[in-house]
Amino acid sequence: MGKSITQRLEFLTNIAIIVAAVLLSVVLIKSYLLPDHSRNGSRDSRVTAGVQVSLPGVDWSNNNQTLLLVLQKGCHFCTESAAFYQRLVRETAGHGNIHLIAVLPQATDESKKYLDDLGVAIEEVKQATPDSIGVPGTPTLILVNDQGVVMTSWVGKLSADDEAKVLRRLVSS
Question: pTM for the whole thing?
């Protein structure tokens, strides 16, 4: 009889391990393999044009237009988009009417190190959570005018075609 209880207990333990492994697999697949539509460029998650952005310490009137790069350390879409952000910095550098600000939820020093590690040379870095400025997820680019009003936005990892459209919009403004 003692052997029967041991066998049942071992069987139930094995079932519990299998169930836990399946649940963990589902979570990992959802997190890393399936797109998260709040962060991958879904068009209906865009920041609404005409909305005022409030970002402490920023005087919008100092610039004709400001592009906010709302990123987050640990966001794989942000990291995967690093080459585009490098190009964005290079190609807007000669256009005095566009100012770039990186906005990350991490402390400013940590955010600057993250940007340095990505090779993205943005001088002005602000600490704010994405939802505190009305952003549904990261990465998000928000173009605002000299009053801090959203002109347009792009959410998620952009396709090569969308990246080209963003650059054309910025350098032609």
Answer: 0.73
